[in-house]
Amino acid sequence: MLFRNRFLLLLALAALLAFLSLSIQFFHLIPVPATKNGASSKSRKRILPDPATEPPVTDPIYEALLYCNIPSVAERNMEGHAPHHFKLISVHVLIRHGDRYPLYAIPKTKRPEIDCTLVANRKPYHPKLEAFISHMSKGSGASFESPLNSLPRHPNHPVCEMGELTQTGVVQHLQNGQLLRDIYIKKHKLLPNDWFADQLYLETTGKSRTLQSGLALLYGFLPDFDWKKIYFRHQPSALFCSGNCYCPLRNQYLEKEQRRQYLLRLQNSQLERTYEEMARIVDIPNKQLRAANPIDSLLCYFCHNISFPCTRSGCIDMGHFKVIKMHQIEDEKERREKKLYLGYSLLGAHPILNQTVSRMQRAAKGREDEIFTLYSAHDVTLSPVLSALGLSEARFPRFAARLIFELWQDREKPSEHSVRVLYNGVDVTFHTSFCQDHHRRSPKPMCPLENLVRFVKRDMFVALDGTSSSYYDACHREGI
Ligand SMILES: *[C@@H]1O[C@H](CO)[C@@H](O)[C@H](O)[C@H]1NC(C)=O
Ligand SMILES: *[C@@H]1O[C@H](CO)[C@@H](O)[C@H](O)[C@H]1NC(C)=O
């Protein structure tokens, strides 16, 4: 118990340091706090919450900084922590791509000037960046399922294309890979030196940013890997559901959820005024501005420390940014409460969880293939998985977010297998809905594999409607 408390204290300190160093770096972007309005300075002093397991604080700038995930900040990582008599059997990693250029431009403004070529002596640095570029040039199309073979293997445009991975994004995943290498390869010997192709299972959506993120993580994990042993599969669906995507009820939940979002937005008159003001500055109709999803662009300016755009009529500023970001936080809060998104998530996340559980079960039976799995994906992939697992307090997936499932064998009872779940390096095993109760009964720091299996094969549907016992039944039930 003492150890646990001390550990929590360390976590809190790490979070505090991370926040302080971020705030200092970005000081010029943060308006001098209005001291009359003591709220913001008070929130700084408060002990910071754990960003993986506690809901967003009402500080939109802090939330935005976490979202950027700027490299160089000391990271917490609890991956691979287990008592000595446990042996690591397999690891399953689901990532969001790293920092990217916006997907939309704000009409009539200058796009943020970011160079997407990789340059070793430009920030953010990574000691492996040059070697990574050189290794990528040696790859061949044979390592990729079509149409991945037609994508560039690292970002390369002097003026970033829409949605392109940036150097920051590459560095974030080189770091993720290196961190996982230190724990899983060096410490736990998950793969032997002469690992073989079938021991990896690699899958990515068809965007260059996900493929390149996957390659950067893999390079950090297995530096100078043999290209002949690599095969990236293409996943056409952002839900990673190929073969099992047809699920009418999931779509109904999504429509209701979108309606909820729309209604909440209408209630927020401050948000409405902010959009109107921005539309006036940019000189386009309000509707057109909204359609360009300006927060996506603004986050890019913010994360890259570039001033928000100006026109002759004025500038978009931190005030606008804060209002929109704050609305996102409120939206996430209502999303948790109304549970429509949970319904969508339980159905949407089933196929990828089912796939993962099947691999774990095979590994538990002693099969040695597919013991390291990497799915390179999007926020719209991770978000439903987090929600389905019951990690409702987890933040909206930041750039280069990582969700990891570890499978362990108890050497003292070799037939028993246990699972740990980690989100961005934080152990969230006992925050999941399938292991919350277990925690209270057991002194073991892990969750039995059977709990996860039971959840994915049955309980997640029961949680949905109380009666369905399979994915097919749940997807085809009469409307909600
Ligand atoms: C952000 O930009 C300002 C000026 O534009 C600069 O002084 C500051 O050092 C920059 N911060 C970082 C972290 O690059
Ligand atoms: C779940 O996994 C099993 C075993 O791999 C597979 O046969 C089944 O089709 C999967 N079901 C869904 C809905 O993904």
Automatic annotation (TrEMBL):
GO cellular component, one term: Golgi membrane
Membrane topology, record value: Single-pass type II membrane protein
InterPro entries hit by this protein: Acid_Pase_AS (IPR033379), His_Pase_clade-2 (IPR000560), His_PPase_superfam (IPR029033), Histidine_acid_phosphatase (IPR050645)
Stated role: Responsible for the 2-O-dephosphorylation of xylose in the glycosaminoglycan-protein linkage region of proteoglycans thereby regulating the amount of mature glycosaminoglycan (GAG) chains. Sulfated glycosaminoglycans (GAGs), including heparan sulfate and chondroitin sulfate, are synthesized on the so-called common GAG-protein linkage region (GlcUAbeta1-3Galbeta1-3Galbeta1-4Xylbeta1-O-Ser) of core proteins, which is formed by the stepwise addition of monosaccharide residues by the respective specific glycosyltransferases.
Name of the protein in its database record: 2-phosphoxylose phosphatase 1
Any one GO molecular-function label of the UniProt entry: acid phosphatase activity
Enzyme Commission code: 3.1.3.2
Cellular compartment(s): Golgi apparatus membrane
Gene source species: Fukomys damarensis
